[in-house]
Structure formats: C-alpha cells, structure tokens
Amino acid sequence: MTATDKNPVCVENSHGRELHRAGWIIIDPFTIIENGYIETSNGFIKGVHRGTPAEKHIDHGPGVIMPPLVNAHLHLELSALKNSLPFGKGFRAWVKKLLEKREALGLEKLVKEAGKAALDLMESGNLYVGDISTLGITGSIIEESGLNGICFHEYLGSDISDIQPFFTGKNDSVSFSIAGHAPHSTSAQLLRMLKKRSGFAGLPFSIHVAESDDESLFIHDKRGDWADFLTSRGIDWSSWQIGSKTPVSYINDMGLLDSLTIAVHLLNANDRDLEILARSKAKVCVCPRSNLNLHGKLPDIEKMIQKGIKPALGTDSLASCKSLNIFDEMAFISNQYQGLDPATIFAMGTINGAAALGIEQYTGTLSKGKRAKFLYLPVRAKNQNRLFQGIISNER
Questions:
Q1: Which pTM value belongs to this model?
Q2: 224 vs 92, 99, 218, 227, 233, CA distance in Å?
C-alpha cells in the first residue's frame, strides 16, 4: 500500500531482517530521530539508529515512521447505526432509539457493517483496539481483520449467572476480557463479580463512568429519567447502594478502581473524582467527539493531566461519531484544547492507549523489543513541533 492524503502505509515485519528508513522516526512522543532507520528481525524491533544505513534497506521517504494508533474504546457492533440517530434530544432518548434501531437492523447487518469498520481501522493505521460488545459478535471480526488488542464482552443489569468463562489469556494479538457497562446500568454485585474475573486473568476491565447528567442525578439522588428508563427495561435497581455519591466515588467504594481498570468518558468528573482516579492508578479513556455530539460538552483533559492522569483516546461508536479514526480524534482535540501541546495529544493516541489496554509491551512506542508493526506518514516537517502538528492535524 502507498500513503495517501488519508491513509498511512502500515508496515509489519514478520520474518527475516529488514531496515526501514525515513526522514523522521518517532520512537515515543519525547524521543524523535531525524533521518534514521529501524532495524527489525522476525517480527520485533531490534533497534532504532540515526543516519542512512549503508546496507540494503527500504527507504520510505522524507516523512515519518511512527507507532500505530490505539483506539482504546469503541463499539464496532454499532457501526451499522452510522448517521441514523439524532443528537440533541437527551442521552436517554438517544439510548432508547439506539436499542430500537439495533434490534430492527438484525444480526446479519450488524456483523456486515462491523466487518467494514474493522477493515477501515486497519487501513487508517488504527491497528490496536479496545472493543466493547454486548452482543458478543465482534471478537471473530477483529481477529479476521488483522486488528490487535482487547475484546471486552459487556454486561448490564443484575444477572450474575450469565458470565461466561471465555478468557484466552493476554497476548500480542487479540485477548478477551469483560466489561461492566456502567454504574447506572449494572448492579454492584455484577460489577464486583466481573472485576474479580478479569483481575484473576490479569486482564483490563472497562467501564463507562460519569458520562451523563442523567447518570449523575440517578446515582446521587436515586431518581430522574434514568431511574424511570431502567424500570421500563425491567432492571430492578432498588437494592443498589447508590445515593449522595458521584459515579466515580460510587465505583471506588465498590473496589473497582485499580491499575487494571479503564474508566471511560469522565465527562462529569470533579476535582475529587480525578484525585481518586489518580491515586487508584486506574486508566482513563476519553471520547471527546462523541461527548460533544451526545452531551454538548467536553471532558476536562487539561485538569486530568494536571492531576497526573495520562488519558487514552477512544471514539465510542459510529452511532455517536463520524469515524473511528484516532487521527480524527487527535485533530479534534488539537482544535478544541488549545492548551495541549501536540506531543501530549500524540501520546494519548499511542502510548497512553497501549498502557490502558495493558499491551504496552507490544506497542505504543518503537523501542527495542516491541512488535515490528508501525506506520509511515508522508508528513514533511522542518522541526519536531511541526512534525507533531502535521500528524495530529491530518496535514499531508
């Protein structure tokens, strides 16, 4: 494949020894080489060197070789709902319409569109994912597409009898873990059980938290539109230990927050919530484009970073976002968060995502020992700052 104005070249070495040269090489957001090459052998990076190699090599051009992107939170199974749901009518109304349309589309259509979206991710350089599925239909799609990462089977409600022992173990291709949907839709008993199962396997546990005003009101006051919605769906929340808490403090009281937990969204997180997350060493994943579409506001990424949190990036789904491409998410963040420097945004889409999914030993940087899987972008830059600006702004 050749680089275009939209897609990078995705490069992978699986056997033998190869040398790959480019005008720039980003080892990590803070270690950049101008005019260098990567030495690879049998699927792994053996070293990164300055200059042009004297021996035979692959010269990619004056652009940049960089780590692949990591989409740490997405819902491939909702890809068939692209451009079909209205925004601006409230979160509960959006969820209700999503459930109705997902059921009406049927499994065949959902699988077909999820497969297309997975291939789009591969072609756009988003090679690692943290995919959330309530229907359990995307694991094989991800494996067949060539994507790597974690597939999370998501649970809602209160039934603890349906948890399936489907772990495959942690590896450098596709691992399978579990997720609790959210503290406003999943009982404390079920959430604790899910967290315990994933922890035994040493795998990450994902949960949506502090995503909406409906959720915050429900957990703090035990009332509101969301309470009515759960009741209408047949979910009995009467025994849930909610009240006078924020969503973050609630899941912290349950013992869900540790270094293997990914807290997703955090749109309604206050200072104390962020301090709790930082102390717990939980990972954080933000989805700003989806948040703006669904809720009309953005997470406080600058404050997260001030508290010592290193947020990863996700896109949520095509039901709430125009694309699943982290290049697009980084460009959006660059426009919306003027105080963030380009290198920090780049880290969110690469190394922070790898750390969130627990796959940083395989990807996230181009350091020695990582998988020999990387991107080439035809970005021309005179200095490192312009280089990052060109990458995150999609300037080709």
A1: 0.95
A2: 11, 20, 6, 5, 15
